[in-house]
């Protein structure tokens, strides 16, 4: 043990992932497809998001691919559910604009400069009102864009229509088939007389498609911006394998995004997700939270504040000590499993809650997952004949033991925050702004600044994203005096911290 | 602004420091001397620490250097105030042992192994009961030690006596002169028939002395372990200048130490320091905290919890956004200076509170500093003829304006937490354990693991320090199963996080 | 001002209420009717409560009054929507039983005793699964019950069917007309060969009906138990006017009910109501809460914990001082109205938020009411031609000013907690248990204990309700030793506090 | 149990008290005397209050009774330690004035009115700078005052000197004997040509003395204002016994005083008391708090906020349920006694912590009392031969078991908040203002408003005290409009709540 060394090996789930990808390349089944995308795809169909059903268009069964549609300017370079829904979508975009002041500020600043003049961006993300604000911002900064959906369920048809109406070549609708999915991506990329020079990806499917089908395109591509955990891992794999042929920017691990997507967002969504599904009262409830990373910290803080008694499990002694200092008893799951009212997983690990744990839980215990993947609770172990499943609400199952004991399982063990609550626009604004800045940085970087590797967003950009969001809170930043900057050895405009700073 | 690059320049205070060192090398004045040591030295004389005055030995005016003392085994290889105080000091050490279970656990584990067998450690630190537990642990692990004080005021004479009595060559007493200070260090290093092979330093004075006087000693020295901000900077300077001739371990920046010394410790000491000095009530008070790093976060959380209304100032937009999300209004100091009841600085910067701010504060406003150095409040600007200073208690001055307005200045702008509250043994235990592990690592590292450079404690060690402190809280860590470890790509014994993880 | 005296005058809204009652007696319009019932009635139609639409029976347009239905035992002494829905309703009741352990405990304790043997209770409350558990508990304690709904919208048809199936004469369905409403009440009261001797009322309509139509019945009635604010005020009016001819128990003001309905429940429902309607993020938001009573205290605590910056307005200097000590800036609404993101009223007062305030709010400001009535926000003032109303979701209106500014008005100013979140079963359990104990107390009280007046629940009963709910939390109460009870001058079984104790 | 009735019997400790008083009347020993006064008297000698030793006058051994002193105006109608210390005392009074704005505001308002013109007040309280501000306020309102100390240790000699110098007949010094104590009181009361018409008492000794020695004086006395728990009980006993011959005002139970003395003050003083005595770290510590009244609520909230894990014991199921909802596990002491790091009593009960509990505590467990009396911990049971007591600091004893286990007992089981922390001036300001208003009310009340009984402060006065303290927090109260006042049935100036309101 006196040997302090320790290297990160390639984790199994990344290896599995590589295997899946192999599989996927042959001919993805619908299931296979979804397991490659972000877990949001699995849950977006039955999410509470009111936005998901703006208008009723379910009666129209014709595939968009078979429709002939033109926008009011006569263009038909798009494929959406129904171009006539554009007006409704436009209103949604306008409302989103009001909540995304950072992108609007970027538009203003760029009025003269056009830092993306000449950029030809192909994008593959969820298509929502917030994405639309991003796309129209990229347009205002000078870029041309073509766009597909990164998930077969998450497209808001009205928003896609509004984008198409205002001239964006968008290829996406809610309820695409697997075949549609790739067809849409291909329509974005494979265009007569237009070649992308930037990629904005969420999950890596677009990047993967170009690698497979149009590898030569990379000659003109200046960089890839990738947002998702999965996509980032794919990029690191490519890089390790020496196959990454353009610079890529990992915007998933920027400070601002991490803190908002995890700590601050989960602090609120754990309460929201539990309330919407179970109407439970938090006060006095005993809760065990598995994992005390950013997500676990957020969950614990919120529940403690609402009067719950919270226990924590951890494998990492440093996080464990933090849990202690923050006032949570650190236990093994077995020690408290019989007494708790709620079990929440936030580990990124697998089989943290096993069938054995589930067998020992008390009646009415609520079990849910806030972590990275749907592996944390061994849900498969509950699909056995002696147990009865009863769907009591959307996203809520009672699993009933022979003796009548009921476990309340939320979202079938998938992410509670994505399935049963909504992501605030403010968080999406931070992500979108980060993406925009990363595109600008890669597109404008002088020759040689970035090699064929995966980069984190420069800290200065990270700080800039934060600064663009401060006006939302009427927050006033202090500026260093010259004397102070000199004293600290800092540039007055930042970056203000060394890279290893922990915030 | 599209240029994301930004390098850390050499900060002014490090340049100043280098200048001071020059000065210092010539012939340090008493003032010069203190400005080189940690700020604790400036305040320890009048601190509240009850330990500082165990027994009354102030009547004995003979210099220890002029005394002939022997311990009960006949040795006189030490120099302390009064060897007869050993018994009292021993009891203090025994009490401290009860609160430092991690070091006691190390002793037990090492009973067979003796990982420091053959080590000859020369140390220069504060000499307190906690240090004594560290020294005796190093002894139990097989090391020989010689020790001096890193501060002319902070030695507990009784503890020094107890160490001398049990055979440790200790050269230290409370109230050394500058000359005494260096004489003590020299007596540790310059010994017939004994050459150190490890250095444990706190502030860099010991290291500096050996560099100047006995550079050849470094041939046998396997490494330096340095704890203080100041000492670490000296080492990085040496390294940059290519003059560092042995590996050095920076234990100041380990996760555990940082979180405990800053966030968790300050969360408590801000309340303690304010209460002991002013007996004020926190409820309803308006407070502005300058700086939202770990120290600021701790101060803000504590005061908010006690019912204060807290404003924050920041220069870094990321920390600023964190303050917003944590529920604090982000302001410029000028906006609130007229209305606040308390001003607390935690920036590490200089002149954060200027005379102009002080002029505008309301009557009875309390001003104090929790940051890195005593430069944050421009105290010098208050030493002008039109203002009257009135010492109302130890560490508390009223500065009175001509119109009768009083400002309550604590610890003359030096660190409130060190001057007016005490550091809990638990925090000292973490530091001491980190030091012990760093010594073990450097002493046992295979050839080539460490070069002539400054290293952070390996994460695995950091985690090990944390794990040794969990039993204090009866905290039970979960172990990964083989399957889980494989899934995550982790070794079951850690390290559990990548180096960039932010905790 | 040296005169400390001050008497409570009859408040205007009670006088108004008396006027309305006059009106109401003539021939209530549908609107008039609803304004007399608890505000839940106004909002229950479009509430989020999933329970409100268990099964789809909306296609059956025949009035229940025109149907011929029999339960499986051949009885037709009931009138519900559809007796065939009984099975579904029974499952809901069984689930509710699991969350109402106090009533289940009462059933067990009463197995031998039957404290309600001989009681003939006529009830008029919301008819939900929780009410069903109460009714079946009263039955188990020996009582005969007949039941109508206190609200024309809130009946769960399936639950009513289940009660009818198991033999309870229930007269209620969702969507009654005004005429139906009184017909149902009359069918409960006016029965051949059965006369009620106890009344359980919620809102006072049942009591009122008997006063008007069957005043002679009061000769046999031992008491009235009333739960609502409105009904309690009606009783105090009757009492003042010397017209109350039986004892009445005000269970609305018991400690347990007050704390749970207000402080603890609102602490959670403010977050829930805001999230479900707006998906907003709380962190960093500026909020003003008008009123710092129990409801305001709950709202403030929750929002502060979620990272909002909270301001408070108050008229009562004692509550104001509490707000200060709890860390909230006490302001006048005008001082912050331009800067806040959310305005929440919890005053019980009228026109706390005026049109002038609304005109000055910033774009996207959210306005909602958590207080007693829907008078707190002057919503009427917004129904002017120059403002556009846009319904963006159920319970969410955008009110749009000519310059494009939008105010987000929730639940049209009605109670957010009742309209946009659900009341936890645990809170309903406390109320139901209190009602059961009040019935038992009044029914069993020796002659002369209660006169023709309105009483609070005896403290010992209040304590008993609390004690029945402790097992939910696995909470273990300490018992006084004989010696301790004597020392304190207390009975070991309580009551433990003087009546003026403030908790 | 269906019988809801329950009357408060006379508690044993009041009976004991009555016995003690008997004892006391014969000829109180020094111990007996102290056990009758407020517990502050027991601890004030070794308190941390820096104010207790402003100047060194300990060398002067002459009894003040034997000295001939005159103030600068030639008066010798006083008896203090040393009239020459007046200047120092005056400065302390001036500083206190700045922190007691409510009394200063009263002075201003009364400039014309003099509501105490003609009042002759005899007072017996702690003599501190804050009391001096009260006395000089009473003077400014028109009263004549004569004053003695209610505690033989708590007088600040410098303040007494300053009062004497400015013309107040003060009879008090630090370190009075029992005989001195009564002599001083007698000198206040028994004066040629001056008869008191108001009594301000703290503990009841002054009232008692007049009852015994000068019962005829009550003919001219308009009322008694009593502040302490003990004194209030004495008054209720007199009232019960029909021997109270003037109206008395119980200012101890006013809302403002209760919340500040208990909830808000203890929230801070528990942390302060523990830190000053033990320098412990709160984070991660397991604590059991016995009793969840106002004091327990304050302790629990503070420790939870500092990261401790807190358990609660309770006998009252309502308070127990509150503890649950606030997030604390409710346990019996036995369940957690082996595992906790700190035991805090706040019950007002006796033998809550028994020798058996103490035997089972773990090593280094800290035991302290925040409750009403020093009976809560059975300290007497620790004074047995097998246990060793070691005084390690002022107010800190280690009690050592034969096996080496140490318990850390604070303040020998007396009140931690009074012994080891200080009461903030703000709290004293609330008390003093309440006393002043009560004197004004009783003195000005029209004939017949108050009978020979004990009264609570009228709510309007309570609200007025609160309102006078709002400016300290720059808090802005909202005023009711006429329309709103009418709607609520309230007078615009209050009182705003019914008497049973719980705050």
TrEMBL record, chains A, B, C, D:
UniProt enzyme class: hydrolase
Bias-annotated ranges (Low complexity): 37-56
Annotated keywords: Hydrolase, NAD, One-carbon metabolism
InterPro entries in alphabetical order: Adenosylhomocyst_ase-like_sf, Adenosylhomocysteinase-like, Ado_hCys_hydrolase_NAD-bd, NAD(P)-bd_dom_sf, S-Ado-L-homoCys_hydrolase_CS
Biased composition (Basic residues): 27-36
Taxonomic superkingdom: Eukaryota
Catalytic activity reported: S-adenosyl-L-homocysteine + H2O = L-homocysteine + adenosine
Sites where the protein binds NAD(+): 293-298, 314, 417
GO BP annotations, alphabetical order: one-carbon metabolic process; S-adenosylmethionine cycle
Enzyme Commission number: 3.13.2.1
GO cellular component labels: cytosol
Region of interest (Disordered), ranges: 24-76
Cofactor details (free text): Binds 1 NAD(+) per subunit.
Record pathway: Amino-acid biosynthesis; L-homocysteine biosynthesis; L-homocysteine from S-adenosyl-L-homocysteine: step 1/1
Pfam families: AdoHcyase, AdoHcyase_NAD
One Gene Ontology molecular-function label: adenosylhomocysteinase activity
Domain S-adenosyl-L-homocysteine hydrolase NAD binding residues, every copy: 262-423
Sequence positions that bind substrate: 128, 202, 227, 257, 261
Known cofactor(s): NAD(+)
Family: Belongs to the adenosylhomocysteinase family.
Protein's recorded name: Adenosylhomocysteinase
Name of the gene: LOC111923194
